[in-house]
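Work package 3, deliverable 3.1, input record:
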Amino acid sequence: MPEQQRPEQKVVEPEYLLLEAPRERKFITGSQAFAEAVKRANVDVAIAYPITPQSETMHLVGDLYAQGYVKDYYRAEEEYGAMSAIAGAVRGGARAFSATSGPGLLRGLEAIVSWPGHRIPAVLGVMTRVVNAPLSIQPDNIEIAYLLHSGLIVLHAENQQDVFDFTLAGFAISEKVDVYLPVVVATEGFFVTHAKGYVDLPPDDLKLPPRDPYKAPVPPTDCEIPPARIQRDAPVQKSNFMSYLIHAVWQQEVWSSNRRAAKWIKHYLGGLIEVVNPDAEVFIVASGCAAAQGREAQRYATMEGLNVGLVKVKSLRPFPEKELREVLKNAKAVIVPEHNIVGWLAKEVKAVIPNSGIVVDGPRVYGGMTLPVELIMDEIYKAFGIKKERKTVV
Amino acid sequence: MKRYNIRIAGVGGQGVVTSAHILGNAMAAAGKYASLVPFFGSEKRMAPVEAYVRVSDQPIYEVGEVVYPNVIMIYHPQVITHGKSYTMPFYSGLKEGGLVIINSDVDIIPDEDKKVLEELKARVYMIPATQIARDIAGTELATNMAMLGVFFGITRLVGLEYIEKALIERFLGGTFVASGGTTALDSAIEKKFKKKQELLAKNMEVIKYTMKLAEERGWVEEEQEQVKT
């Protein structure tokens, strides 16, 4: 690979780049917002395999490579290869970015869920897409459920601005010594990635400091060092209390690290949740695009004189357990709109509050359909005991 | 809060997605708000295409397709006559008191649909957009401009200077790519017009004409009446 012309960018601390630098408003797509974050993140290598609706983002990251903002870039053989190569590159000391969608994510999942245990700080964009049959390219987000139990830090972006902020902050958070885990920035395909929104951007002649691979809580784990060692040694791999113990402490440490990310998410992104109207009687709790629809419903309900609040869950892992318990303690009903059939967020919310009976399962849309604000309004009316009729023909 | 949730239905090659972008960019140029989502299957001429645009003077949060529009624009009569649409019937989800703008020189709405539209107190306006495009710009490819002109003429959301700004961004900006097919189509149009400047001027002429048309037909007053209620 020939030496590239590297554009001049001044290295600044993540605090300055994310929290203090002046910002200019642009009207851009979510894919562009991902690329704008990568452009300022001093990324060494980007590796991916194309899939709709992720392709546009990685195409734009490829452009960044051509312009010299990213040092290396290639299209892998498929997602398993892409995600394994990301792990290799990060072990080698590089800062890495990849992105995928739906079926691509599940193809790469075996490698991805091993990243936290191998302590691979990387950032992965997930542009959601249907994975269950009948297959489509639309943004059903059931795939996020598969990510919640692996130790990954999972942020869920509501809009293009979140995509930029979460991705840029993701690099800083993932490499903190007390975290040192991969960060997933998920957002709904098309609705965010292919739609334009206002994004306030810091100057592009600034970038994060380069990755310092020696600032790590563990040495790069290869097959000579525990815990990977137990993958290699057949006698140890079998029933052996030493291997169970190693696995237990190692995964406990992964999940402790995951929880420790909370303070950095608060530091860079203002909290694990955002609350609109904390004194509300009825709350909408939502993440990603559903939070955007919920925000609109909260506005309309307020215009109609109904005391409705919104809790946007920005971080799915670590999950804001205490925060949700506190904000929902006086809620009469909790509406959880979702873009999937299993209702993974509703389950999460139910699991952390003492009175799970107040949680309304839905509204939900499937197969990547849009979530009409009208459906959330219907649930709000029901919660307040208001009878309304809709005249429209659908 | 002035808010329009628009569904545009047309067929491939008519510039449905392009005009949705222009609509959004004109709002952005005027410092207002817009969000849009294009929706198409495999890209080909005469295949159904839909685009959804939300425009407002206030920030817009919601995303995705517009299921309950208050404005429906039909760029091609076949959307109604042949059911060339992802949403059937063409008025599905239309909110009470909504606006339907149809490109047709003859009344193509079946009686049973008319009944529903009356119950919804919908205002249904028909204009021969393709004929206007042919007469003024010399090409039916400016049909989308004629439709945009009617919409802006009725709603008065942004001044002409911002519409022109959005057109310049779209046709002279050079960085925008809606899709591979659209880019190829652009160069076909460009050849036809020889110069981009000329293309821009013709498009503006079409827009101005249909804006005036909306005013002459009294659609602007009817819209102001609706906004009041």
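The radius of gyration of chain B is 16 Å.
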